[in-house]
Every structure is written in C-alpha cells, then in structure tokens.
Amino acid sequence: MPTLDRIFIHPIKSLDAVEVRHAKILEGGALEHDREFCMVDGTGKWVNGKRTAKVHHLRSQFNLPARLVTLSVQGDAPVSFHLDHARSAIAAWLSDYFGFSVTLHHNAITGFPDDIASPGPTLISTATLETAASWFENMTVEGMRSRLRTNLEIGGVPAFWEDALYTKTSDPLPFQIGEVHLQGINPCLRCVVPTRDSRSGDPIPQFQKTFAAKRQETLPPWAAANRFRSFYRVAVNTRIAPSEAGRSLRVGDEISVDRLS
User: Fold this and answer.
1) How many Å separate Cα 189 from the centre of its chain?
2) Looking at the whole model, is its pTM more than 0.70?
3) Where are the alpha helices (DSSP H) in the chain?
4) Distances from the Cα of 76 to the Cαs of 49, 57, 58, 72, 97, in angstroms?
5) Taking the domains of the chain in order of start, what are their residue ranges?
6) For residues 218 and 212, what is the distance between their CA atoms, to the nearest angstrom?
7) Residues 6+ apart with CB under 8 A from 182
8) What is the pLDDT of residues 151-165, one digit of tens each?
9) What sequence ranges are listed for the domain MOSC (predicted)?
10) DSSP state letters, 26-39
C-alpha cells in the first residue's frame, strides 16, 4: 500500500525546507506555510534560485509555532527575525546580502507556487529520488531531494510510480491521501535549480541533458509519454479543491487511486 512517508514545506520560497508530520490544506489548495513568503526585488520580480545562484548560499531555519526565521550566509553568524513583526528587518538583511533592494511578500491563502494553475503540493516517490540520484556520480538521495524540493514523498512503491497520477489528456486524475482528495495534473517540468548543488550552488555539467536522457530511458509503461514534450520532468503537480480546506495530510496516510486499483 502506498503511504505518505515525508512532508516538506518551504516557508520562504527558494530557501530551506522544513520537514513536518502533518500539513493543513488552505483554501487556495496549498499546504499551510508552504511558499508562504517570497523574496521580491524593486521591480516586483521574484528573487529565487532560477535568477541567482547566490540563493544557494543562504541557510534558513524556521520555528513556525513561534513565527521565527533564522538566516545566515554559510559560515557567518545566524540572525533571527520574527516573520510577522520584523519583515522590514528581514528585507534589509536580504538586500544587504544580494546587493539590491529585496522585500518579503506574504500570501497565507495560496502561497507563491511556480505553477499557479496547479498550486497544490508536488509529489514524488522515495524510489524515484533513489533512482535519479544513481544517475550522477557521488549523488546522494538527500542531495537529489534537496535539488527537486518536492512537498510529498511516497513510500512503498517502485520508482516513477507517481507517473500514474496524471492522464494522457489534460483531464485531472483524482486520488486520495488520507482524508484529502487531490487531482494529479502533469509531470513537473524542472528548471535550472536542480542542476546546482543546493548548498554550494556549484553546477553539474550536462545535468539537464543527462537527466532527460535517463528519464526517457526509464519511463515506465504506465506513464503517459505524450505528456513529455521534454523529458526534463519529474514529480507530479497537483490541485486541491477549496472543499478540502481545513483537512490535513499526515505522515503514514495511505494513498488510494482508482486507476491503480
């Protein structure tokens, strides 16, 4: 039986993850606190790993019940801030680090997803992470996990099991994790971020080319191959209806999919 083995949220978009045991569904279909904040420059554009590799050198730790974030540049002394009452101080600290004006924007309903059409949690299996890590010399599972930054990790299934959670068309595929009803939408197109080490920012030469070639080579028979205009895709984007707001995903929840039963 597939089970939800791990849950990760990223309170500030592009910064470090927090592993949690349960996560509430918001009205906008996101996990509570996931990408709740984002860094924005003076022109309104996101400051993220796609834009600058300097993001990888930032470390962040969160105490969400206390609404605290502790920021540091690798090797420097950490500084703690209140997420609600010290946003101007956070903005000043980030602006000093990046060398241009940065503010912290907040959205407690949908967060700031990359895919606004599918703002639900992204999903991948542990076996997929293990397989993808094996494609690169000296890559660990944790290293691949931190590169892909997926919310939900599924155990008890083979690699790429999650490729059964979308259809050959654009029609959503219903499935359930515990008490929460979700819809699988499409395989997630990756960006430049996974090509770099999540802590040093150092790139792996030909990462995208190697990843895409291996992905095509190992595409399982249950995957809808027509959804892969590019094979630089892994994990699944989801949507969650507003009717699910207030329900929670919990580690240990079983997963049921009519298509797989």
Assistant:
1) 12
2) yes
3) 87-98, 126-134, 141-148, 207-217
4) 20, 11, 10, 6, 12
5) 37-106, 115-260
6) 10
7) 120, 121, 174, 175, 176, 238, 239, 240, 244
8) 999 999 999 999 999
9) 87-258
10) PTTSSBTTTT-EEE
